[in-house]
Write a structure and sequence with these properties.
Length: 290
């Protein structure tokens, strides 16, 4: 018996009171209408891209022994997955050992943040090493169910105009405050086309590599890549069910949200004038909260 497909609109505002769910879903109906119209239009056009048959999962890590095994196992059984590439920045714990034990290919990437180090540099190294038709960037404390991988591949095969996109996340903690953050994430990624790293970013490998599109910067790499990706082709957003950790939110609280909103805004303003100093942003992000 065929399993009934999950309606993506049911993921929006989930966990909020019923009246709130109904209210917050209204603006997203326009988004779904636009996406449906686009899907119908492009389905009538001849296919101009090669089928997407395989996917490479790239996971940047540093001291992630508590999370890496379950992260790898969340994607390891999907038939589309060609390889899982863990790019590690000199972890001092058992991250590399556990990643290999779970079946991943481990690369070491420990450069200074001023010279291609940091998370963006790690991801870029993983992309350059990957061989799948599609690449998905997954944080070590996030779980990516196989059903979400299937949706990524399906939308890319149905829509040759789509260069990539992101999959929405749900936080593992049931508290209502995280439902508000999820909703804000959905709004930003769907309407402004700017996704963060815990919203799993995915894309066709060949055009990204050939255009050297992924930025090897230590922080804000997800924001910068979202902007660049949108310029290369149509970007989609899947309201999904990846499971993200709340560890930083619990440690720092809403100061984390304030910091993110403030610094993303500053980054977007600065990049219109000159190349922002992401090394300086990196230091400010991590130093106070270690």
């Amino acid at each position: 018996m065929k399993k009934k497909a999950n309606n993506p609109i049911h993921n929006i505002g989930r966990g909020l009171p019923v009246w709130a769910q109904s209210a917050v879903r209204i603006p997203f109906l326009f988004f779904f209408a636009w996406e449906t119209a686009g899907s119908w239009m492009f389905s009538r056009q001849p296919r101009q891209t090669s089928p997407c048959r395989t996917i490479s999962i790239v996971i940047p890590t540093r001291n992630e022994e508590a999370y890496i095994e379950r992260c790898i196992r969340s994607v390891g059984r999907n038939p589309y997955v060609r390889e899982i590439i863990v790019v590690d920045a000199a972890s001092e714990d058992l991250t590399q050992l556990l990643a290999r034990r779970a079946g991943a290919w481990v690369l070491s990437h420990d450069l200074p943040i001023e010279s291609g180090g940091g998370r963006g540099g790690q991801i870029k190294a993983g992309i350059q090493a990957a061989s799948g038709d599609v690449i998905a960037v997954l944080h070590a404390d996030t779980l990516l169910p196989g059903s979400e991988i299937n949706r990524m591949m399906d939308v890319l095969n149905r829509r040759p105009d789509i260069i990539g996109g992101a999959v929405g996340c749900r936080f593992e903690d049931p508290e209502h405050r995280y439902r508000i953050i999820e909703l804000a994430n959905d709004l930003r990624a769907a309407f402004f086309k700017i996704s963060f790293g815990d919203q799993v970013q995915f894309f066709r490998r060949v055009p990204i590599v050939s255009h050297q599109l992924f930025p090897g910067i230590p922080i804000m790499e997800d924001v910068e890549f979202s902007i660049r990706l949108h310029r290369l082709g149509h970007v989609t957003y899947l309201f999904g069910n990846t499971i993200a950790s709340t560890r930083r939110w619990k440690r720092i609280g809403y100061l984390n949200a304030v910091w993110v909103i403030k610094n993303v805004f500053i980054y977007l303003i600065r990049r219109m004038i000159q190349t922002p100093d992401t090394a300086e942003i990196y230091q400010r992000y991590y130093s106070p909260f270690k």
